[in-house]
Design a protein that fits this description.
Number of domains: 1
Structural class: mainly alpha
Shape: elongated
Helix content: over 70%
Largest sheet: none
Number of strands: 0
Oligomer: single chain
Order of helices and strands: HHH
Distance between the termini: 49 Å
């Protein structure tokens, strides 16, 4: 892999990790997780294209589909919290039942 791809992947992953660790809003944390998944996916696609690996490309597509499903589930949970009038803040949220 080229150093540019490593730098892009590292910066995307670092931004996602910072969003998850430093922010307390659930939307920001979900976006941070999506950034981290995208960073891994960028490096996987670059590696697969460099070596002509079809399995790597199909794994990247599978990861993309799982990330989309994760976003749908996370956003639906956050939307349900908003409908119930509860704060979408990770410090205020202790359980999802109720």
């Amino acid at each position: 892999m080229t150093p540019v791809v490593w730098a892009v992947s590292l910066s995307l992953f670092a931004c996602g990790l910072a969003a998850v660790l430093l922010r307390r809003e659930l939307i920001a944390m979900l976006l941070g997780v999506e950034l981290m998944v995208s960073a891994v996916n960028v490096s996987l696609v670059c590696h697969a294209s460099a070596f002509g690996d079809v399995e790597g490309m199909s794994a990247a597509l599978l990861i993309l589909a799982v990330a989309a499903a994760e976003a749908v589930v996370g956003l639906s949970l956050i939307l349900q919290l908003h409908r119930d009038g509860r704060a979408a803040d990770s410090e205020a949220l202790q359980e999802l039942r109720g």
